[in-house]
Write a structure and sequence with these properties.
Largest sheet: 6 strands, mixed
Low-confidence stretches: 12-18
Shape: globular
Number of strands: 6
Structural class: alpha+beta
Distance between the termini: 79 Å
Strand order of the largest sheet: 2-1-6-5-4-3
Number of helices: 3
Radius of gyration: 25 Å
Order of helices and strands: HHEEHEEEE
Oligomer: single chain
């Protein structure tokens, strides 16, 4: 009798477990192509090898440095020329923190912190390396569409 009750209880338990509903993973509200890992890769690629969204979707590149120098470009070609020149001079950046939020069906807004160093910083009186900024990523092309940074 006890064996029959145990087998019956196990059968009910197995039947219930097989039919139990599983919790679905939360659905992301970020556009395709701009999940957090993808956004991280886009930004790190941008820092290592500057590329920008195509001309039709590029918005702005701006850098406000602590020695008072400012560079603002609304033309993609001018922004790329500046970025590549800074890289040729030895400037290097490393991402420390990145926040990603949806903007629309094809873009996300980003907020970032990074370290940046250039060999000419000491001559220019720049002694810090921390940079704060924000921007927009074009998810369809997986490129930076807007970038504004302040510092070092």
């Amino acid at each position: 009798m006890l064996l029959r009750a145990t087998v019956g209880a196990l059968a009910v338990l197995a039947f219930t477990a097989c039919g139990a509903k599983k919790q679905a993973a939360p659905k992301s509200n970020l556009p395709p192509g701009c999940t957090v890992p993808e956004a991280d890769r886009i930004v790190c690629d941008f820092l290592a090898h500057p590329t920008l969204a195509p001309a039709g979707t590029f918005e702005l590149y701006a850098s406000y440095e602590s020695d008072g120098r400012t560079f603002v470009a609304r033309r993609r070609t001018a922004a790329l020329a500046h970025l590549r020149q800074r890289q040729r001079l030895g400037e290097r950046s490393r991402l420390i923190a990145l926040r990603v939020a949806p903007k629309d069906f094809n873009h996300v807004r980003i907020d970032f912190r990074l370290t940046r160093f250039g060999p000419d910083y000491l001559k220019r009186g720049i002694h810090q390396r921390l940079v704060r900024g924000a921007g927009t990523l074009d998810c369809a092309h997986q490129k930076v569409a807007a970038w504004v940074s302040k510092g070092p």
